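Please decode residue identities from the backbone states below.
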């Protein structure tokens, strides 16, 4: 049997369509229901659906009053506060194109992003870096907030295939790419409701991530709102250590974070009292089985992992309705057509590793990459994600890591994730990252960077019990912490460069 899922007919996105109107649809049916809470230890900022919709449409009126026209791009330089969704959805309401960016970028980094997408306006919070010479007007966050009481703008409806928003890839392997998404991308997220999140109208979903990230934007805001549920976001400056208390105090029923946040929480809490919690969600990086197991023991609930990317959000996942086997990421969500491909682009047999790919017919797939005013659409039938995976006979897919992170060990291709999962069970190891290091001009070895108290001899003995000889690390390098990207992914590139600089 080939590593290929059969196409499943899904309900097409209605037309005309507007992303913002869709996600705020509950304002018509339950305007007084709590839509958003920005959480802080001292309390929460609360927004009902009715208030949120009216304010978003007022912001849309304000943007249009500045002379902007549908299709113009707005760069968002905002942190984790209500201004972010107001600006994002206000832009979409008016037919403008929001472009969220990480608040921690430097002026030169922001300047490069501006050159790529050519914004007509920048909305910026106080203290957030801007280009030394902004290419367009800058609207301070405080001034944008004065738009909230303006008469509501009409929804700009149109073809669901038209450009809705732009996001940037993380750029860990090079320059970030600008990825264009259609308005229909939010409609395609309906496949995640049961295929991953398991969300209901009475849920209260707390997301630990930054709002500019697609994981938080989608699972933290769009999905709860599309279900008529309550979205909760940790305010700027809230530390991971404070999240369990906030989850309990504000009755979170679903919690979402990256594996690194779960690891930090569990390192400080053997048990967690979260009486309302039904389950947790994980994405952004491979979820080690040890963390899932520890979370089950600490909370009595399961963790459901998803795999996705900026170009297609999530499309593989575990879910309450269909939990993934231990060690696997999950299954293709209902309606997703995915395949595991060989280097020549043909589906491999089940049980064989290959590159994970998504069919171009997927309604959540991006429009293309942005260069100035041009969008370059993908041309091949299959969009290859760059992730190495293997599909089991029952369709469960297990991640083997990024193809460009794969280690060449004696002619064998080895997944760093496989090594990390094996070594993560060694006593005295709390976190690890497997990296190929070039020790001579013509020789490289597997190195394990790790956090913990284990000694080299114990690590080597443990590796012998759970890894084939060619997969066993040859170097063990203790660190105070494993570096991660802004999205919580292991930064192997930084480890390689750090080690090289020390030689």
């Amino acid at each position: 049997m080939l590593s290929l899922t059969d196409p499943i007919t899904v309900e097409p996105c209605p037309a005309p369509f507007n992303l913002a109107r869709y996600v705020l649809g509950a304002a018509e049916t339950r305007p007084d229901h709590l839509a958003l809470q920005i959480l802080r230890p001292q309390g929460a900022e609360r927004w009902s659906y009715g208030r949120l919709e009216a304010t978003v449409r007022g912001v849309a009126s304000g943007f249009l009053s500045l002379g902007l026209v549908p299709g113009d791009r707005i760069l968002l330089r905002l942190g984790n506060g209500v201004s972010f969704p107001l600006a994002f959805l206000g832009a979409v309401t008016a037919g403008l194109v929001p472009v969220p960016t990480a608040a921690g970028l430097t002026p030169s980094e922001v300047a490069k992003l501006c050159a790529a997408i050519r914004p007509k306006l920048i909305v910026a919070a106080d203290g957030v870096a801007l280009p030394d010479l902004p290419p367009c007007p800058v609207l301070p966050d405080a001034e944008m907030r004065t738009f909230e009481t303006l008469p509501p703008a009409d929804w700009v409806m149109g073809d669901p295939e038209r450009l809705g928003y732009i996001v940037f890839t993380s750029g860990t392997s090079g320059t970030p790419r600008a990825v264009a998404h259609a308005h229909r991308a939010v409609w395609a997220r309906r496949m995640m409701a049961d295929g991953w999140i398991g969300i209901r109208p009475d849920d209260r979903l707390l997301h630990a991530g930054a709002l500019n990230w697609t994981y938080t934007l989608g699972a933290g805001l769009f999905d709860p709102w599309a279900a008529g549920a309550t979205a909760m976001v940790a305010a700027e400056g809230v530390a991971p250590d404070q999240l369990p208390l906030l989850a309990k105090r504000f009755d979170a029923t679903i919690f979402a974070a990256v594996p690194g946040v779960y690891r930090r929480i569990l390192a400080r809490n053997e048990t967690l009292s979260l009486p309302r919690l039904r389950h947790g969600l994980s994405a952004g990086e491979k979820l080690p089985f040890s963390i899932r197991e520890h979370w089950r023991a600490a909370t009595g609930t399961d963790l459901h992992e998803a795999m996705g990317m900026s170009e297609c959000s999530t499309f593989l996942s575990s879910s309450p309705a269909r939990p993934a086997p231990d060690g696997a990421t999950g299954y293709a969500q209902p309606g997703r057509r995915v395949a595991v491909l060989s280097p020549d682009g043909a589906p491999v047999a089940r049980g064989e590793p290959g590159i994970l790919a998504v069919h171009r017919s997927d309604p959540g797939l991006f429009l293309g990459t942005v260069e100035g005013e041009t969008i370059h659409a993908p041309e091949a039938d299959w969009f290859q994600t760059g992730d190495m995976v293997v599909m089991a006979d029952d369709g469960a897919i297990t991640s083997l890591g990024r193809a460009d992170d794969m280690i060449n060990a004696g002619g064998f291709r080895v997944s760093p994730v496989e090594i990390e999962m094996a070594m993560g069970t060694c006593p005295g190891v709390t976190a690890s990252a497997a990296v190929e290091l070039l020790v001579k001009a013509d020789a490289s070895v597997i190195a394990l960077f790790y956090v913990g108290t284990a000694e080299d001899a114990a690590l080597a003995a443990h590796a012998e019990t759970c890894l084939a000889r060619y997969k066993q690390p040859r170097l063990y390098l203790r660190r105070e912490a494993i570096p991660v990207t802004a999205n919580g992914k292991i930064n192997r590139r930084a480890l390689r460069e750090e080690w090289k600089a020390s030689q």
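Observation: Residues 450 and 493 are 15 Å apart (CA to CA).
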